[in-house]
């Protein structure tokens, strides 16, 4: 892969990760004060969950695929590799569970509006806590798994189409367009 092409791909990944962090920070900031029954938070929370469902759902799929590829490629994995795979799969399973809780809470917001704010905020707290404490970069795990992956593996795992990137960027814009006027969010 040419250096120029690799730099473009890394820039894309960095921008994607920055957007994910900005939305997580926006949700965490909103949760700190809570909506306190303010209906202006309903479209904001819905937009956040729409974005997270799409973006984190895709990332969960990619990471799950990575584990499958490594398990398939490694005939006699070391205990470190097995532990790394098991750890990633456990974190992904929990993350998916919490994401689905957030999506159900979003769906309740769509149906009942402000009456579902507290339930959404509880699901949001659980999910953002998990992302901050369990889903960050783990150098030993990453090194154990990435050593087995080729450039072709990375391309196959990503599975991202231009359309998916466009959709995620549009959902990101909707988050900040729906931000309640009373909410101040520091830049991430």
Uncertain spans, ≥5 residues at pLDDT below 50? none
Number of strands: 0
Shape: elongated
Alpha-beta classification? mainly alpha
Proportion in helices: over 70%
Order of helices and strands: HHHHHHH
N-to-C CA distance: 31 Å
Number of domains: 1
The number of helical elements comes to: 7
Proportion in β-strands: under 5%
Specify Rg, calculated over alpha carbons.
18 Å
Mean pLDDT, nearest integer?
84
Labels describing this entry:
188 residues; mainly alpha
What does this protein structure show overall?
This protein is an all-alpha fold and 188 residues long. It has seven helices and no strands. The chain has helices at 3-33, 41-73, 79-112, 117-134, 139-146, 151-158, 162-177. Helix 2 (41-73) runs antiparallel to helix 6 (151-158).
Topology, please?
Elements: H1 3-33, H2 41-73, H3 79-112, H4 117-134, H5 139-146, H6 151-158, H7 162-177
TL;DR?
By secondary structure, the chain is mainly alpha-helical. The chain is 79% helix and 0% strand.
